[in-house]
Amino acid sequence: MAERNRLKTAVRYYPGVAVIDLDGEINAFAQAVLNDAYAEATSGQPGTLLLNFGAVQYINSTGIALIVSLLTRARQSQRRLLACCLSPHYVEIFQITRLAEYIPIYEDEANALLAASDTAS
After folding, report:
1. With CB atoms 3.0 to 4.6 Å apart as the test, which of 3, 10, 80, 101 could cross-link to 21 if both were Cys?
2. Pseudo-torsion of CA 110, 115, 118, 121, nearest 10°?
3. CA pair distance 24, 22, nearest whole angstrom
4. Is the pTM of this model over 0.85?
């Protein structure tokens, strides 16, 4: 049963942006998967990483900590980290935890990509 919601990722590339599609639950079991996706996404040296939360069903406090660690790594390597497709509940969680102050949140991927390209030029 727990296996069904384990986090799966896919990485897609646009000029200057790597999109990490997240699918499942972001919890303690997601750490290795997130780290692997981050390594894959940054291998092409994009200036911006976009986390697409469209298929995420659940994020717990450990998951929030994992997202903070991705933010830290992105900032250390001079990359922007954006988020899109968060449910209203998780937008509120990002605001309460103040993550939204450091990770701009976009309603959909198209607007996030547009914002990424606006700041890249």
Report:
1. 10
2. -100
3. 7
4. yes
